[in-house]
Amino acid sequence: MSNRSPADPWSATSGWTTRHWLRTGMTVTLVVLAVLGSLSVWAMLRSSRITDELVDVRSPALVNAVRLESALVNQETGIRGYGLTGKEEFLTPYTEGVREEKTALRRLQSLLADDARDRADLATVRKLTRAWQDLVARPVSASSGEQAVSLAKARAQEGKQAFDSLRGALSRQQARLTRERADAARSLRHATILRNGTLALSAAVVLAVAVLVSEALRRGITRPLEQLGAGARGVAEGRFDEPIAVAGPSDMRQLAADVDAMRTRLLDELSVSEESRRLLDEQAADLKRSNTELEQFAYVASHDLQEPLRKVSSFTQLLQRRYGGRLDERADQYIGFAVDGANRMQVLINDLLTFSRVGRVLNDHTEVSLEEVLEHTRDALSVSIEESGAEITHDPLPTVVGDATQLGMLWQNLLSNSIKFRDTDRPPRIRVGVRRDEGMWEFTVTDNGIGIAPEFQEKVFILFQRLHTRDAYPGTGIGLAMCKKVVEFHGGTIRIDPHHRPGTRVVFTLPVAPVPAVTPEGGSST
Predict the structure, then answer these.
(1) DSSP class per residue in 229-267
(2) What is the CATH number of the domain that holds 490?
(3) Which residue in 147, 434, 454, 465 is a FRET match for 167, CA 20 to 30 A apart?
């Protein structure tokens, strides 16, 4: 059921979107501006046409009409003087007047070609001009001396009447041209007023449209977006219980409803997340306690197994020494299996004990010179190095912050692996490289041994993972797992370079040791 009131004038537009409002507003604005623009263009064209008429036709026509009258007056003055004296120098004004008359008539004929009344006035002037010239001017100017004087006196009265008629025609022509020029000037003033008015009205409409558009944008877009932004910031600040309501076009209201729906869902998800976080914290605490207990158990188990294992190993070795060769061959074989198993169990327990101590017991972080650690490791492996003929070279190694014992185990496991898994066809060649990559040292241990197949390059870092039988290569499968734990405990990473062939290249990183701050007295502080 609709909740719109029939008396509500905005009910019909309550469903309009921002695009609908903008399209309607732009259409109305363009129509109004088109009408005003057309009116302004018409007013400017009319003003321009009247100006052209006034400048190019009416004013030049009046000027040439006055010039024609002046030329005819000069002719009459010259003929009258010549008729009174008979002297030819008085014909000069007449001659110049005839020339000016032709120029003025030719110009007037061109200017007044589009107006029938003006053409009629010009025809009357030309007719009366020819009549006067035929009656007086030409006969007198063609005569000489006393004959010209006599002829002028004889036609003086008729000539005066003819020229007076011509003056009247000229006056009427000039009066009409003056009126037409005044009418054109008045029309120009009216057109200018209309043009200025339409331009002013257009400017006022543009200003009003700009104000209306600004207000419409403020009410329909800016203010709803501000309300929506305020609600979104409230949600971002954690005020999830405040609903988001926006007034404006339907799409803005719909957007606000969608954001409010997200707020509601976030509120629900937050409740679930809080519950999940609480459970996760409880599980993390349980897991931490379990890990602590497990590490303690591993340590205690490894430590407590040492004594009974030493007894088993000692007595089996004693049994082997005392009764070896006295029993049958199978009994000697069984005793050998027992001794070997006890020895391997003892090595495995020792390795597990060492593995469990990393990060728990062995955790003394100081500045450690890796040059010195590497030299100690080479001394510890001197027998293996000499027996295998291994050659170990290295770049100048830096000083890092860490546990010297753990870093010693790292070098010992990496170098002993390179020696152990050597190629039988060539002596081991081991190269330790280092380079700085921003805040980390990247170390490489490269050998020319048997290498690691690509599918096993991730598995070798898992505890007890072996790629070969104990008969081929002895060991417990803890070495690289120990290396991974040591490197990660120091904040680095370790991996196998998959592109190195032949042999194996182990790549690991350690953080760069921070530079001590120098105090003003010249000392240093950490």
Answers:
(1) HHHHHHHHTT-TTS-----SSHHHHHHHHHHHHHHHHHH
(2) 3.30.565.10
(3) 147
